[in-house]
Write the structure tokens for this entry.
Amino acid sequence: MSQLEAIEGQLRADGLRFALVASRFNDFIVDRLINGAEDYLVRHGADRAKLDLIRIPGSFEMPVVVKKLMDKGEYDGIVCLGAVIRGATPHFDYVAAEVSKGLANVSLEFGVPVGYGILTTDSLEQAIERAGSKAGNKGAEAAHAVLETVRVLAQL
């Protein structure tokens, strides 16, 4: 069996600039995601002064805000943080689908990694579990994905 040479991203954030785009809607959950993402990046060498936090009304507004940030060309990666919790209407399905599609399109258009730290859960309890309790912190996981992808892209 042959050994393949792998291209892998080093988990070092020093010298990089990141934006955290966070929804105000469900802020009691999103604030935990912000803390997780910020903590992860700083623990991996990011300069707190090079982390920008942009607060927006909800997750649905993320694609247009991220596009505007990418137009500026100042960020190596963007971490999106929000919580869309299913209710009694189909609103959840529309928001979750459009946000996902919009962020993927913007990331591909600009070639800048976007971390998807937007919780899409069936209940408040599931959101709490993913914002720092039983299921880890999805904000930190999104920051990890962005950092590793930035470093991989730099090698390609």
Summary: The beta strands are 18-23, 51-56, 77-85, 114-121, 131-133, 136-137. The chain has a mean pLDDT of 94. The longest strand covers residues 77-85.
